[in-house]
Amino acid sequence: MTPHLQCRGLACEISGRTIVSEVDLDVPRGSMVALVGPNGSGKSTLIRSLVGLRPAAAGHVYVGGTDLGEISSRQRAKLLAHVGQEEGPTEDLLVGEMVALGRVPHRPPWSVDASRERPVVMEALEMVGMTGFVDRPCQHLSGGERRRVMLARGIAQGTELLVLDEPTNHLDVHHQIQLMETIRGLGRTVLAAVHDLPLAAAHFDRVAVLHEGGLFAVGEPAEVLTPEVLETAFGVRATHLRDPDTGRVHLVLGAGAPAPAERFAS
Question: Whole-prediction pTM value?
């Protein structure tokens, strides 16, 4: 079966400097894949190239077998929804208006059909627990509420593929877990850059680890987020704990890896 999202030989540059290169990644249809890596490893840069916001320096990205480099931005928006890390709602819009922008790729040019879109908007807001905010100005939202509104816009876009950059940023623990359960309940394909390793281990089907400019490891959380990989890529020690009720793997992160011996030389 063709992966829902696939890239081959993908390379990303910023100001002529290569950030990541030779990235081969398959995201199976209906799965949730976490992209993890230390700060500065290129997660956001890779995400932006995967969704077509930043031209790739090399390689190709395919969604359902379609080369994203060969179609328009409007066509891409019908295949995938992207929610950026620092992307926030426009302050002079109401929450409902902001979420309704997710429907733009499906409208005929210059067309607005508020009566048809409102049920979609309300359903998306219900999924993120914000139906009571539909008529609230976006400028009055907290950081966590803004994140949930942007996710609702992505949900309302109606694509089978969601690409998210730090979706739990600014959310407290309760809303982080609630959001992960909401995303899982959508039944869509999800690729998400996350910084919380225990969250990645507990809620995602597969994990891809970025390290030193490329993909260091890809696979199921228990296979990839091993103590050896985490010490190499993140410089932390870790222990696996498996929940006997759910079977989920949980990570317990310990102290940083010991410094090289030469650092202690007199």
Answer: 0.88
Amino acid making up residue 12: C
φ, ψ dihedrals at 259, nearest 5°: -70, 150
Q: Alpha-carbon distance 128 to 130, whole Å? A: 6
pLDDT in the model for residue 114: 60
Backbone dihedral angles phi then psi of residue 6, each to the nearest 5 degrees:
-145, 140
pLDDT score for 112: 61
Determine the pLDDT at residue 239.
Answer: 82
Smallest CA-to-CA distance from 118 within 96, 135, 93, 101 is with: 96
How are beta strands 81-83 and 214-219 bridged, if at all? unpaired
pLDDT value at 33 more than 50: yes
Residues in the chain: 266
Round to whole Å and give the CA distance between 27 and 16.
Answer: 28
R_g of the chain computed on alpha carbons: 19
Do residues 236 and 42 touch, judged by C-beta distance below 8 A?
A: no
